[in-house]
Every structure is written in C-alpha cells, then in structure tokens.
Specification:
Elements (H helix, E strand, L loop, with lengths): L7 E7 L8 H12 L8 E5 L8 H9 L8 E4 L3 H7 L20 E6 L6 E3 L7 E3 L3 H8 L17 E4 L1 H4 L2 H11 L9 E4 L4 H9 L2 H8 L2 E2 L20 E4 L15 E4 L2 H10 L10
Parallel strand pairs: 1-2, 1-4, 2-3, 7-8, 7-10, 8-9, 10-11
Antiparallel strand pairs: 5-6
Keywords: Iron, Iron-sulfur, Lyase, Metal-binding
GO molecular function: iron-sulfur cluster binding; lyase activity; metal ion binding
InterPro entries: Acnase/IPM_dHydase_lsu_aba_1/3 (IPR015931), Acoase/IPM_deHydtase_lsu_aba (IPR001030), Aconitase_4Fe-4S_dom (IPR036008), IPM_dehydratase_rel_enz (IPR050067)
C-alpha cells in the first residue's frame, strides 16, 4: 500500500475586499477559475498579506468549500487574527506551523482581493461562476449550452432563497445579511428560509435582536439544522423553482426537484435577491 503526499496549490492574497464582497465570493471565484476538479487530490493553501483582512468566520467558509474544487483540505497560514480568535478558547496547548521557506508548490496563484466582485454560481455546477455585473451575458451563454451541468437559465427571478447551512450560517453571515434586509420586506413571490448553523449562533442572534430583523421582514426562521441543503426538509424546492442559496452545492436535484434551478452566492447576495425577487447586485443595498 502506497500513500502519496498530496501536492499543494498556494494562493497568495493581497489587498482587501471591497464593500459587498466576502470570503464566499473568493472561493466561488477560485472554483470558477480552477474548475470543480482543479485541485483534485491536492491541498490548497492560503496566505500572503491580504489574509489578515479575511475574518476567521469567512476563512471557515473558504475551507468548507475547498472540496468543491476537489481539494483534500484547505489550510491557512497562522496569523494574529487566528491567535486572537483562539485566545481564551483553546482547551489544550497549541503551536503554529508555517510553510517551509524552501517548499515547492505545484502552482502559485496570486489574487488581488480588491479586484473581486460578488459572484454567483449558475446551475448545475459550482464551477459555473460569474460576477454579478456579467450575469446577463452569462445567462445568454447558458441558453446556448447543451450540457446537463450548465443548463439554460431564462430568467434571474427566484421563487426561493436560503440563508444558512454549514457554509454560511454563522453569526457574521447574519450580521452582514441583516444590513440588507433591515427595514425591508421579503418579496411577495419569494420563500426566504433562514437557518442559523448552530443553537449557539441561533441564541446569540436572538439575544442581539438580529433574528427579529428577519422575522419583521417576513423570513421563515427555522431551528438549527441543514435545512433544504440536502433536499429532505424545511424549504425543499419543487418543479420549476429557482432558488438562490448560501450553501455549497447546486447539483441537479440537490435541494429537491430535478426540475429546479439552484444558484449559489454569499449571504448578502442571497438576502438581496430575497428582497428584490431576483438575483441582483447586493452592493446597491449596502
């Protein structure tokens, strides 16, 4: 039996996100750039001066979706942000490990975080990525596709929206999404399902009045669980539905009917769509 040490792809980050852009947009962009098998059987590593501008909760989202480009795991250089996060949380001693100065990467990719826009993944594959500013062109491109992985999309109007899942159901995700929906209403044609990722997050959001903002807007708030992500309960989509979701996968039939369309995006983009009734640039709401 042979065990092969996985090769590593390094992402060097610089700059910082512009308003309305988050870690979810970064990982979607990278999946679109490398492809859903672009890091197959490999490790992806994030570092560089821009890493300090990405919060721990957003890094968890990035790591969560590393597998969506085939990676065995996603790792980050330890830094002050991590040390601050671990303070008073660690139950055991820990030690930081850094890349060897002479290490050899299979590939090094430089990313300027300030160059990114909100991203959207079109059905039925996480690698069907476009910036929100180019959605109309990408929709026309889909209409010429014959692939089951990249199906024709005739409209950006949605019937359902989902904020939650292990990918984007954390406290910070809800805080950012609340900036979009506060004082507004969910579109009358949209079922907006909202599920904090854990009971701890749920209780904190309730205590801080954040869940009330979503309740006042008309969102359907459910107890902490996977929700419609795996297609079994609490928001499962039907035939002809179009959902935008903060979860991590949009395969055919993933969240219900095989005749539904699933789009993936950040919590902010999902919430903006729930308000507008269609997928829009969330930055105009911020």
């Amino acid at each position: 039996y042979d065990f092969e040490i996985p090769k590593t792809i390094r992402f060097n980050l610089k700059g910082k996100f512009k308003k309305g852009v988050y870690g979810k947009d970064l990982i979607l962009y990278l999946i679109g750039k490398l492809g859903v098998d672009g890091a197959s059987k490999k490790i992806i590593e994030f570092g560089g001066p821009g890493l300090k501008n990405i919060s721990l909760e957003q890094r968890i989202t990035i790591a969560n979706m590393g597998v969506e480009m085939g990676a065995r795991t996603a790792i980050f250089e330890p830094d002050e942000e991590l040390e601050k996060y671990l303070k008073n949380k660690n139950k055991f001693p820990y030690k930081f490990y850094y890349p060897d100065k002479d290490c050899l990467y299979e590939k090094v990719v430089d990313i300027d975080l300030s160059s990114l826009e909100p991203c959207v993944a079109f059905p039925h594959k996480q690698g069907n990525i476009t910036f929100v500013s180019q959605m109309d062109l990408y929709m026309k491109k889909s209409q010429k596709s014959k692939s089951m992985d990249f199906v024709p999309v005739e409209s950006l109007k949605i019937t359902d929206a989902f904020l939650g899942a292990c990918t984007n159901g954390r406290y910070e995700d809800f805080i950012e999404a609340a900036k979009i929906i506060k004082g507004k209403k969910v579109h009358r044609n949209v079922n907006f399902v909202v599920i904090p990722a854990s009971r701890k997050v749920y209780n904190r959001l309730m205590k801080d009045g954040i869940l009330q903002i979503f309740a006042d807007a008309g969102a359907n708030i459910e107890s902490s669980n996977c929700g419609p992500c795996f297609g079994k309960h609490m928001g499962v989509v039907g035939r002809g539905a179009q959902m935008i979701s903060s979860s991590n996968r949009n395969y055919i039939g993933r969240m219900g009917s095989r005749e539904a369309r699933i789009f993936l995006a950040s919590p902010v983009t999902v919430t903006a769509a729930a308000v507008a009734g269609e997928i829009v640039d969330p930055r105009k709401y911020l």
